[in-house]
Specification:
This protein has 700 residues and is mainly β. Among the domains are: 3-262, Porin; 295-417, GMP Synthetase, Chain A, domain 3 (2-Layer Sandwich), CATH 3.30.300. Helix content is 13%, strand content 44%. Strand 25 (547-559) and strand 26 form a beta hairpin. Helix 3 (300-316) runs antiparallel to helix 4.
Length: 700
């Protein structure tokens, strides 16, 4: 039996079929190894972290160090990305900085008589320095003691192996890196490992293990000696989200690690700090015929007064009233939510305001969500349901509303009820971080950014930003050619060195609704720090569909390094056809196929897990027709995406989010144009699933 093939097929199938629904898989832990994965000290266990936990681990032992990001993707499946410094790795190279990925799956949950069991692969798509596979079991004894035992291959099979599978472990020619080492999986020598952890108190845990890692590379480099296979550690919980560990490795090396744990399900700040919404105002009894009359509609001043009252009240809530049409029994309005991360919360507050402003005869509220001057969806509800269900769960009112396609016509300036200042600006500090440059593992740029926008019409905006670096700007000497492709991304150091100040972006964007279920965008100008030109995009997205399809085409030219108004000689036609699919279990996927900035052709696959509070964690991979040799180190583009809603962190309502893309190494192949306002993200936020997923805040 080909064990590697069976395990890979099993992991792939389980990963695709996995559901993020909260499940009690048992045998959970807050303990992370020196390699940043759930476990003891250096050895893995069959324990798992809490579902959706995101852990940042930094470890230092001797001159070696590593930082790891681990995400509990589902209750059973976890993945890790590691960046490590290996001291004195080579007599010529010296210190080496390595990037690696891990994945593990809980195969069996613990029961009364049987242990939990997990299977994992470490460093499966890299240089193979940490390459290993393992099968491990963990059993809980009493309330405080856990015992672990397992078998390891690769590095985890290097100390006192007890057998082998398939002969010697095949050599691994990693080339430029970035390729799966499937031929090695569960091959060659395997060795046992074991360990125990004991929880002394709520804060203190002690751990000991018998390690199957001989640390051959570290010993060969002279950075440590392997005197014994036994390792020891203490784990101290500083707070619910911070742990520190001190450990003693191989009878020779002392080290420590810091673990910071976050969970998108658990807000950092207490929510609900915003002002309370208006209470629902009930109508007088129907026996009061005069109050329920419809004569008010005949006096135009009544309608004018109602519009002003609604606009003023919504404005105080951070919601912009775009238009309001009144009938004797129905109110149709368009609103632009500029404050609440949950569109449902904006709808709920709008409905409450309407119960105060509308005459009793108005029974139907039809509220259209608008963004960038474009109608997204229409939510229709009965006023009597709002009055009756104010103190009921939000799900009750959700069952009574209708969410439909909004009429495909952009909001016109003449429709806007209240005059607003079309010009907006802000001056704020910025911090830009770059990661994993071999010469500078973490690079920071601190400065100030002046941003401004002018709305020519609700769906036509001119915007731009001017940045001034104050600290940490790269030097032109930091640039070295790193691929055989046009340098569309790798000249970042030259842009950083010469653009101070520089125009980050300066564009004119027009958004439209060309037809039913269709959305469009045209953008002209300096779209990003390195490219400017013209781009057009169209998106097909029914309001209640899990599937969306889009296309974008752009002609762009490379900007001068000073990021002012000039261009270089390089230009390219780039574009993609995209498909988006929501699996209705918290996971979504996006596929983009087309031509990239360096002229290469290929496709990108992104898989994201999105939480009801707006958190998004995902990964992507891009493969094009560029060879590994032409691409350079890493072979192809891949990375991790994290988007953190500031409302989650601050506890106050805001639609802003902090996003980061952690790439193993940025190169020129597979590089896509970066432009703000792409259609899917903001259109989807006002459609069926995204709207209903956050409906719990309707009454907030």
């Amino acid at each position: 039996m080909n064990i590697s093939r069976v395990v890979f097929s099993k992991l792939a199938a389980l990963g695709l079929a996995a559901t993020p629904a909260v499940a009690d898989v048992g045998t959970q832990t807050t303990s992370y190894t020196i390699y940043g994965t759930p476990g003891l000290i250096a050895m893995p266990t069959a324990e798992v972290a809490t579902d959706s936990e995101l852990a940042f681990t930094y470890s230092q032992f001797g001159p070696n160090a590593s930082g790891t990001l681990t995400f509990q993707i589902t209750p059973r499946l976890s993945g890790s990305f590691r960046y490590a410094k290996i001291a004195d790795f080579h007599p010529v190279v010296g210190d080496y900085f390595d990037r690696s990925f891990d994945v593990r799956y809980r195969v069996l949950n613990e029961s009364k008589y049987f242990p939990a069991m997990s299977v994992g692969v470490r460093d499966f798509i890299g240089t193979g320095i940490y390459s290993s596979e393992y099968i491990v079991a963990t059993k809980t004894i009493g309330d405080r003691l856990r015992m672990t035992g397992g078998l390891g291959w690769g590095r985890l099979g290097s100390y006192e192996p007890i057998g082998a599978i398939g002969g010697a472990r095949p050599d691994w020619d990693f080339g430029k890196g970035g390729t799966l080492n499937l031929s090695q999986w569960f091959k060659g020598d395997f060795a046992p490992f074991a360990g125990v952890s004991y929880q002394v108190s709520d804060k203190l845990t002690v751990k000991a293990e018998y390690s199957s890692d001989a640390y051959e590379q570290e010993v060969a480099a002279g950075v440590m000696e392997h005197k014994t296979p036994f390792n020891f550690a203490v784990d101290y919980r500083v707070s619910p989200s911070i742990h520190v560990n001190a450990f003693y490795l191989a009878g020779d090396t002392i080290g420590a690690n810091l673990v910071i744990r976050l969970n998108p399900r658990d807000p950092v700040a207490r929510s609900g700090t915003e002002g309370a919404p208006l209470p629902v105002k009930p109508r007088p009894p129907r026996s009061n015929a005069q109050a329920w009359g419809t004569e008010w509609i005949a006096d135009p001043t009544n309608e004018t007064g109602i519009r002003k009252a609604v606009a003023d009240a919504l404005g105080k809530e951070g919601i912009k009233l775009q238009s309001l049409a009144l009938g004797t029994t129905r109110a149709e309005l368009k609103v632009d939510n500029r404050k609440f991360h949950s569109q449902a919360q904006a709808i709920g507050r709008t409905a409450r305001v309407l119960t105060h402003a509308m005459p009793p005869s108005v029974e139907i509220f039809a509220i259209t969500l608008v963004d960038n001057g474009i109608p997204l969806s229409k939510v229709t509800m009965r006023r009597s349901d709002i009055e009756r269900l104010e103190h009921a769960p939000a799900s009750d009112i959700l069952n009574r509303v209708a969410i439909d396609e909004a009429k495909p016509r952009a909001v016109r300036r003449s429709e806007v009820v209240a005059v607003e200042e079309p010009f907006r600006w802000s001056l704020a500090p910025y911090l830009s971080l770059g990661y994993f440059d071999p010469d500078s593992p973490v690079r920071g740029d601190l400065g100030v950014k002046l941003s401004a926008s002018y709305h020519v019409a609700p769906n036509f905006v001119i915007s731009g930003a001017l940045s001034k670096s104050l600290l940490g700007r790269a030097d032109a000497d930091d640039y070295t050619p790193s691929s055989n492709l046009p340098p569309v991304r790798t000249q970042a150091a030259l842009y950083s060195a010469e653009a101070n100040p520089g125009i980050s972006n300066l564009t004119a964007s027009w958004y439209g609704r060309p037809g039913k279920n269709l959305y469009s965008r045209v953008t002209l100008g300096y779209m990003e720090s390195m490219f400017g030109g013209a781009a057009a995009e169209v998106l097909w997205k029914p309001v209640d569909s899990n599937l969306a399809v889009g296309a974008e085409l752009a002609w762009v030219k490379q900007r001068d390094f000073d990021q002012l108004f000039g261009f270089q000689d390089y230009d390219v036609v780039t574009g993609h056809v995209s498909a988006y699919y929501d699996f209705n279990n918290g996971f979504s996927a996006q596929v983009d196929a087309g031509r990239y900035l360096a002229g290469d052709y290929g496709a990108s696959l992104s898989v994201d897990r999105t939480f009801a509070n707006g958190w998004k964690v995902g990964a992507y991979v891009t493969k094009t027709n560029v060879s590994a040799e032409d691409f350079g180190e890493g072979s192809f583009d891949k990375g991790i995406k994290i988007s953190l809603p500031l409302e989650w962190a601050l506890g106050t309502p805001t639609r802003n989010a902090s996003s980061a893309v952690v790439r193993s190494l940025e190169r020129d192949g597979g590089a896509r144009l970066r432009t703000e306002g792409r259609l899917f993200d903001w259109v989807d936020s006002g459609h069926g699933d995204a709207l209903t997923d956050r409906w719990g805040k309707f009454w907030r």
